[in-house]
Design brief:
about 200 residues, PH-domain like, Rossmann fold, seven-stranded antiparallel β-sheet, 5 helices, 13 strands, about 20% helix
């Protein structure tokens, strides 16, 4: 999740103070002015004199962000790949169980030193576990024993579903003795939450 900033925003001939949040796939504005701007829809992005200028088919806006204008422009123009967001590097031991994206799994198999999508490998640097319902979170605790000391467990779950919500995932990770350290957009339909062992138990 990105940094939320309170700033002045000029759009539609008006200036208002609002909360602006740069997410993985969109810029969100909340306050008297409410906007959801998908990054893929942006026609132009520029930063100058502390202002971020955005233009999309339905409108345009200028965000007075100060030192963050250049940073936001760079992040919008140079988005991280899914692999970068999830800490995937060549040479790792990786397990992927019940994942919703076959192409993602194929990419993992190619990059990993050792890989399994049948069972969790011992000393896994990364374990990806797909969870479509709360019932599928039941096996999370068993995966912890397969993690390397500094390994990470990513739970990948669908966005906007009543069957499973972020709090369900957070509770499952906590129950397994882990702490949540990061959230990332896995795809247009799924979110990923990262869990690790507490520092004192690594």
């Amino acid at each position: 999740m990105g940094r939320e900033l309170v700033c002045n925003i000029r759009s539609g001939g008006k200036t208002t103070s609002a909360k602006a949040l740069l997410e993985t796939n969109e810029v969100i504005v909340r306050g008297d002015l409410r906007l959801n701007i998908p990054l893929v829809s942006l026609m132009s992005v520029s930063a100058r004199d502390g202002e971020l200028h955005l233009k999309w088919p339905e409108g345009s806006a200028i965000f007075e962000l100060g030192e963050y204008a250049e940073k936001w422009a760079y992040k919008i123009l140079h988005p991280k790949s899914t692999a970068e967001k999830l800490g995937i590097k060549p040479g790792l031991i990786v397990s992927a169980l019940s994942m919703p994206d076959d192409n993602f799994v194929t990419g993992l198999r190619t990059a990993a030193k050792k890989f399994s999508n049948a069972k969790a490998l011992r000393e896994s640097d990364l374990i990806f576990a797909g969870a479509e319902t709360t019932a599928s979170l039941a096996g999370i605790a068993k995966l912890v024993d397969s993690l390397a000391s500094a390994g990470a467990l990513w739970i990948v779950y669908p966005k906007g579903k009543q069957e499973i919500k972020e709090q369900h995932v957070l509770d499952a990770g906590k129950k397994a003795g882990l702490v949540d350290v990061k959230v990332a957009s896995f795809s247009a339909t799924h979110t990923a939450l990262k869990f690790v062992r507490p520092k004192g138990k690594r």
